[in-house]
Amino acid sequence: MMSSSLPHVTSNHVSYNGLYGVAMFSQKDGSGELPGGHGAQENFSEDGDAILWETELEKDDDPLHRPVTVALVESNSINHNGASGLYVQSSEALHIITNVIHANGDRGITVAQSSQLTRVANNSISCNRQSGVKVEAQCKVELRGNGIYDNRGHGVITKGDSTIVIENDIIGNRGSGLQLLPRSDTKVIKNRIHSFRAYGIAVRGRTKALVQENIIFQGKTNKTIFQQVSNNRECIMKNNKFLVFKKKSDTWRLVNPPARPHLENSIRGPSVAHSGQKATAMATRITARVEGGYHSNRSIFCTIL
Fold first, then answer.
1. Residue 113 covered by a domain
2. Relative to the CA of 34, which of 12, 62, 135, 245 has its CA 20 to 30 Å away?
3. How far apart are CA 261 and CA 22, in angstroms?
4. Pairing of strands 178-180, 215-217
5. Pairing of strands 226-228, 201-203
6. pLDDT of the residue at 220
7. Same domain, 256 and 136
């Protein structure tokens, strides 16, 4: 779990925790509900009860160090945790880049609050028990260059009012490759999308969307590639390529470009070259709530400060 002002979390192995692998919070006390959805109202502690994190701002006056301008989660292996691999509830800009997020007990990444842009780029997000990525309402998220494979739920599911999904491989997920929920506003551009059992893209209700220049593969079922529940004039389709099976032996390969993510093209965070910087200075008081249903013999905390 991570709680800080503009934290940098890099090059860690985060595994086998009872709740999240990494959780990013930046709310002050009473600013809203923290991780929920399972009905519990307890506050975190070493035993799963009340805790309040409060520290003073750490100062670093070295002029050679770049200022920390964005929170960063980079080059971590986050796997086999009890809830989402990465949980975001933040009012700060955040970059999530070049991580391996695998086989977690809930979603790979959950963006519950993101009033500034959360950029998710060049990650491998696979084999999680629910969806690869979920974006909640009123969140601003960009997904770019990720490989989102073989998750048990949808590849990406979004309610966000500003979501950009561009140049990702969203392949082999058991739910729809991409599910757009009512009142979301999404741009889906130049992705390769395939669902193992469901729709390539499913549009639910009144959704504003631009779906352009994607390659969408049909799964091995009779599901259609694209599903739209109602006639929605605000969902615009342009220049997409739909590939359907003509016979069971048909196969496709991810070439030109090869399967994502492409780590050599990663755009690194602004202060990664200055890894000695104290990038975990904390100035806000954080209160977090435990989700019920995850108490087990595994640890609740993996704290990186």
1. no
2. 12
3. 21
4. unpaired
5. parallel
6. 67
7. yes
Q: Domain check: are 240 and 289 in the same one? A: no
- Predicted pLDDT of residue 305: 41
Closest CA to 23 of 291, 295, 270: 291
Domain that residue 162 falls in:
124-260
128 and 18 share one domain? no
What is the pTM (predicted TM-score) of this model? 0.75
Q: Is residue 280 part of a domain?
A: yes
What per-residue confidence (pLDDT) applies to 21?
96
| 109 domain residue, yes or no | no
Pair 37, 97 in one domain? yes
DSSP line for 181-226: -TT-EEEEES-EEEESSS-SEEE-SS-EEEEES-EEE--SSS--SE
| 158 and 221 together in one domain | yes
Structure tokens given for 4: 């800080």
Residue 284: what pLDDT?
29
What is the Cα–Cα distance from 244 to 263, expressed in whole angstroms? 30
Q: What is the DSSP string of 215-277?
A: EEE--SSS--SEEESS--TTEEEES-EEE--SSTT-----TTTTSSP-GGG----TTTT-TTS
Q: Which residues of the chain have pLDDT under 50?
A: 1-2, 28-34, 37-64, 267-295, 299-305
- 193, 296: one domain: no
